[in-house]
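Hi all, posting the design record for the shared folder.

TITLE: backbone redesign
STEP: 1 of 1
STRUCTURE INPUT:
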């Protein structure tokens, strides 16, 4: 009995000494494990983390943050700045979410362009419907902004506004800026230089070959078919 008591006391003291240790105490250093090459089937788990943590309600069956698939894709989300046609910041932070198949197609296109020393740069991706309302309330004109009651492919996470950049990230000359509303932005406008027309043609061909379709009045806008996802109100979080 005496020995049992001593044993119990020893256990209690030992536990007490452990629990009183500060959480950030330096643990005795263990030898560094040898760095092993990852097995081929673990590569998918080694995807880079996005710049910001994924939102807690991020549903991978619904959404893919594009830079999570490929961090080399360029982002210049104009509605997260005041450099846009309403001159007002509409998104709290620049994040490009798309429906999973749309994001995968965009990454394939980016990889294809990379072989030519080029790449994609996104101006706008999924646009939550509450933001569509903000835009509509500022510019209630269906020539420039889709009526949120009807919604647009951006509100479904199935449209991208984008351009092509060179290996240094410089935008190729497309003849007009993003969200330029006028005939110079039309696909059939013939007044641009040969270079501009070739640049637009390159974007058009690579997008069409991966399941996107163009719109006649905006060289930067492409939507993915078929229309399989609903209009959405989900708002991503910012840190
Ligand atoms: Zn668009």
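Okay, here is what came back for every position:
SEQUENCE:
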């Amino acid at each position: 009995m005496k020995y049992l008591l001593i044993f119990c006391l020893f256990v209690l003291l030992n536990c007490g000494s452990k629990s009183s240790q500060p959480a950030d105490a330096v643990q005795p250093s263990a030898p560094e494990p040898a760095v092993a090459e990852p097995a081929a089937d673990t590569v998918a788990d080694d995807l880079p983390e996005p710049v910001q943590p994924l939102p807690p309600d991020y549903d991978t069956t619904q959404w893919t943050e594009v830079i999570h698939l490929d961090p080399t894709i360029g982002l210049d989300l104009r509605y997260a700045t005041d450099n846009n046609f309403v001159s007002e910041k509409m998104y709290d932070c620049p994040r490009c979410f798309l429906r999973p198949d749309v994001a995968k197609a965009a990454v394939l296109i980016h990889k294809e362009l990379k072989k030519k020393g080029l790449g994609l740069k996104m101006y706008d991706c999924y646009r939550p419907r509450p933001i569509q309302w903000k835009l509509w309330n500022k510019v209630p004109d269906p020539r420039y902004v889709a009526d949120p009651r009807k919604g647009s492919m951006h509100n479904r996470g199935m449209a991208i506004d984008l351009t092509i950049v060179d290996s240094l990230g410089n935008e190729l000359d497309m003849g007009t800026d993003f969200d330029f509303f006028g005939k110079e932005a039309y696909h059939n406008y013939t007044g641009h230089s040969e270079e501009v027309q070739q640049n637009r043609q390159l974007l058009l061909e690579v997008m069409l070959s991966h399941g996107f379709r163009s719109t006649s009045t905006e060289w930067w806008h492409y939507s993915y078919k078929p229309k399989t996802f609903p209009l959405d109100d989900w708002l991503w979080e910012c840190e």
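COMMENT: Residues 2-19 form the longest helix (18 residues).
Let me know if anyone wants the other runs.
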